[in-house]
Design brief:
Beta-lactam/transpept-like; 2 domains; disordered C terminus; Beta-lactamase; disordered N terminus; beta-lactamase activity; alpha+beta; Nuclear Transport Factor 2, Chain: A; globular; Serine hydrolase; five-stranded antiparallel beta sheet; Beta-lactam_cat; four-stranded antiparallel beta sheet
Length: about 425
């Protein structure tokens, strides 16, 4: 908020008015975050704690107050952009000199702040044609792929592709296969949406998500667990469901969903297993890298115990040795298409409700009737994909992937997410098409 010289009248930007008038669950935490940056005095950490998830303050050895003071010194700020999307909010703040900063606010399922981060805003070029996107993704040391497809009368019309057949690590995109395995089990009567998973120590993973905070023995309906797995990319939710349906069922779902080389996902890993083998102190990384499928399955039996890795242990990239979920952009496209077909067969509407709970970006509902989204990340890995249906029921798919040997080359995903938003806003998905694929 800026002050008019010589008066006490506050002049709000349009984004500030939008933030002030928003009544969503996310708006309150976003307003609270802005108060931390602009209020005359900072509250104590004890006063802040009730608004934060447990353990939030522990991530700041110098104290969160010291970090906030550094951020406040960069201001005063005005809010120039406010983008609330379900449980995630992004605000672009401008200082008096015109420098832009990006404030990220992410809440958990109870409304507590899980992530609050301020950093210099990144430059994202305008996307008017596909060549602009390819140029924006041309980063030294980073491998990327792009696929844009429109589905018309059952035909797959390729709008644009770049290295779309190349298998790349995808992080949490693996949850799409897990969702398919779950739907299949429900369709076959092996499970029901009202069945429950039960939390236990050997299935507790690291964030993202918040189910790792639940006490042992907590019972959660499969429906709610699946919602958190997709909408919040909850790793513990995914691991609980993987245990419920079984590893072999997920591996069958990989084949059924048309993965070009299912052996890349055998054995099918849980998030906890990737964390434990990749960054644990048990020295299993080399054995995984050198082992065949039989050896790797034995390693998974050895790590079937409570996780010893903390979030702070993650650093060096491990996707190069197969500790991730490798998919081509075409693989991602095929599993998205299959899931939407699953949703069309589901008379209860549960599948669609889960798949569309979090669109990843602000979606123009006048243009798009349905938005299915999944993101994925791991050190050195970033992936975003969308399946958007217009009001005629025509699906449009966009897949963006990045991989690098160093995490710093990838960043926090803001570039890829905002490039995806610009492509979708540009109208390119509705434009001219290349020969049919």
């Amino acid at each position: 908020m800026t002050e008019v010289p010589g008066t006490t009248t506050s002049v709000r930007t349009a984004a500030e008015r939008e933030l002030a008038e928003d009544d969503s669950a996310l708006a309150g935490p976003c307003r609270w975050a802005m108060e931390l940056l602009t209020a005359p005095e900072l509250p104590s950490e004890a006063e802040m704690a009730p608004s934060l998830v447990p353990g939030f303050l522990d991530k700041y050895p110098r104290g969160f107050t010291a970090t906030l003071e550094e951020w406040r010194a960069l201001g005063p700020f005005s809010v120039t952009t406010y983008q609330p999307v379900a449980h995630k909010g992004w605000l672009v703040l401008t200082d008096p000199s015109g420098r832009d900063f990006s404030l990220t606010v992410i809440i958990d399922s109870t409304g507590l702040v899980r992530i609050l981060h301020l950093q210099p805003d990144i430059f994202v070029p305008e996307i008017r044609e596909w060549a602009d996107l390819d140029e924006a993704l041309r980063i030294e040391g980073v491998t990327s792929s792009v696929l844009a497809v429109r589905i018309e009368e059952g035909r797959h019309l390729v709008l644009h592709e770049k290295d779309a057949h190349r298998a790349l690590p995808t992080g949490s995109a693996y949850k799409l296969y897990l969702m398919r395995a779950l739907i299949h089990a429900i369709d076959n009567g092996e499970l029901d949406w009202d069945d429950e998973v039960v939390t236990r120590p050997d299935l507790r993973s690291l964030p993202t998500g918040d189910m790792q905070e639940l006490p042992d023995g907590t019972r959660v309906p499969v429906r709610e667990t699946a919602h958190k797995m997709i909408a919040m990319s909850d790793n513990t939710a995914a691991d609980l469901l993987a245990d419920k349906v079984g590893r072999e069922a997920v591996e069958r779902a990989v084949v059924a969903s048309g993965h070009h080389d299912p052996s890349l996902l055998r054995p099918f890993l849980s998030s906890r297993e990737v964390f434990e083998i990749g960054w644990g102190a048990n020295g299993l990384r080399r054995l995984w890298a050198e082992g065949d499928e039989t050896v790797r399955r034995e390693l998974l039996r050895r790590v079937a115990a409570p996780l010893t890795v903390r979030g702070s242990d993650l650093g060096e990239t491990v996707h190069q040795i197969g500790l991730d979920w490798h998919m081509s952009a075409y693989d991602v496209f095929r599993v998205l298409e299959a899931l939407v077909q699953d949703g069309a067969r589901d008379a209860t509407g549960t599948v669609d409700a889960i798949l569309t709970a979090y669109p990843g970006i602000l979606v123009d509902r006048q243009k798009w009737a349905k938005a299915v989204f999944k993101g994925g990340s791991c050190p050195g890995v970033m992936m975003f994909c969308w399946l958007l249906e217009d009001h005629s029921g025509t699906p449009h798919v966009l897949v963006l992937q990045q991989a690098a040997d160093e995490q710093k080359l990838i960043g926090d995903g803001q570039l890829l997410r905002r490039l995806g938003a610009k492509v979708i806003e540009s109208g390119l998905l509705e434009g001219e098409k290349e020969p049919t694929q």
